[in-house]
């Protein structure tokens, strides 16, 4: 489990100023936290963390030396500025189920013999105790054929008794469809000599 260091943020300093100084802002919420804790983290530390962890990942968040077993609840990207604006965390309680999501990762798509993969769900929503949290669902699509479909209920996460799915088990995650060639318009024969 990765660790991210953060500091409590003074609300007197504007977010814009903190971002210019190389920080990413965020909040920590949780059942055992009275009010949300506004925090700031070093931008380089956040970028390093997000290379391996994302929304739905469980990390150790250290706020001014106090460790929190935390879930990354939301990551707000600013595509225009090319930066991460804010990350929100939920401090976990070991005996309390939390809502989370697992990112769908397709494996071996280069081995697909025919057809086109269509990813219909990029994440699976569920509830689980902190010990059962999953941040990624890997699906091997290398053996799929045209007409094949994988539904949420077909995934390992659906068979896990410690996980309560909130995404519909019948929802299609990925399918393989035939490639339909574009209709080529017929051109009139050229009669110029």
TrEMBL record:
Q: Which organism is it from?
A: Fusibacillus kribbianus
All copies of the Large ribosomal subunit protein bL25 beta domain together span 111-178
| InterPro entries reported for this sequence | Rbsml_bL25/Gln-tRNA_synth_N, Ribosomal_bL25/Gln-tRNA_synth, Ribosomal_bL25_b-dom, Ribosomal_bL25_C, Ribosomal_bL25_long, Ribosomal_L25_dom, Ribosomal_uL5_bac-type
Q: Where is the signal peptide?
A: none
In the record, biological process GO terms are: translation
Read off the Pfam families from this record: Ribosomal_L25p, Ribosomal_TL5_C
Q: Lyase: is it a keyword of this entry?
A: no
- PANTHER family according to UniProt: RIBOSOMAL PROTEIN L25/GLN-TRNA SYNTHETASE, ANTI-CODON-BINDING DOMAIN-CONTAINING PROTEIN, RIBOSOMAL PROTEIN L25_GLN-TRNA SYNTHETASE, ANTI-CODON-BINDING DOMAIN-CONTAINING PROTEIN
Q: What is this protein called?
A: 50S ribosomal protein L25
Question: From which domain of life does this come?
Answer: Bacteria
Gene Ontology MF term list: 5S rRNA binding; structural constituent of ribosome
Keywords linked to the UniProt accession? Ribonucleoprotein, Ribosomal protein, RNA-binding, rRNA-binding
User: What residue stretches are annotated with the Large ribosomal subunit protein bL25 L25 domain?
Assistant: 4-89
Per the record, its GO cellular-component terms are: cytosolic large ribosomal subunit
């Amino acid at each position: 489990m990765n660790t991210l260091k953060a500091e409590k943020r003074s609300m007197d300093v504007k977010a814009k100023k903190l971002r210019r100084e190389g920080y990413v802002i965020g909040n920590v919420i949780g059942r055992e936290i009275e009010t949300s804790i506004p925090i700031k983290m070093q931008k380089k530390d956040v970028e390093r963390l997000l290379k391996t962890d994302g929304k739905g990942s469980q990390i150790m968040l250290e706020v001014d030396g106090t460790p929190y077993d935390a879930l990354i609840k939301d990551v707000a990207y600013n595509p225009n500025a090319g930066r991460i604006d804010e990350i929100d965390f939920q401090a976990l309680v070991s005996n309390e189920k939390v809502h989370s999501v697992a990112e769908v990762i397709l494996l071996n798509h280069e081995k697909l013999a025919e057809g086109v993969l269509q990813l219909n769900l990029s994440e699976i929503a569920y509830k689980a105790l902190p010990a059962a949290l999953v941040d990624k669902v890997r699906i091997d699509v290398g053996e799929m054929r045209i007409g094949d479909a994988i539904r949420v209920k077909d995934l390992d996460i659906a068979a896990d008794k410690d996980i309560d799915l909130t995404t519909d088990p019948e929802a299609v995650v990925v399918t393989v469809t035939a490639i339909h060639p574009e209709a080529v318009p017929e051109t009139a024969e050229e009669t110029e000599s």
